[in-house]
Please model this.
Amino acid sequence: AVVSTQSTVLCSDSEGVLNVFSWDNWGDISDRVPVIEDVSIDTVLRYSDNVVILGCEDGVVRATTLFPHTPLPHVGDHGDNPIEGLTVSHDEKEILSIGHDYVVRAWPVDQLDQNIDKLFKISRGKRFRSGQ
Model:
């Protein structure tokens, strides 16, 4: 996922860590953000410049801020089915996820937005659309 006004790239790994790269400096990991211990992060979706949505091996759709790293309440759960893909709906009202059970689930963003606003105590503006 490309974040932070297009200058930072996040790559997930099988140990529950987000590896942070600076654009045009691909040889070195510039930072590592531990998210969850011993659970693979299989997909990452940029939600805003400082918030990403994570699809994990344990079937949980998570959200976290990056700098500072603050886990947010879970967005959704596919049970024991690992998450393979994430996107934001065209109207930005839902996060869509698909797991190994081949079922697409929709998660409303209202509560997530409230948690983010509460954390930052300001409105963070327009969210990223998956097609941009």
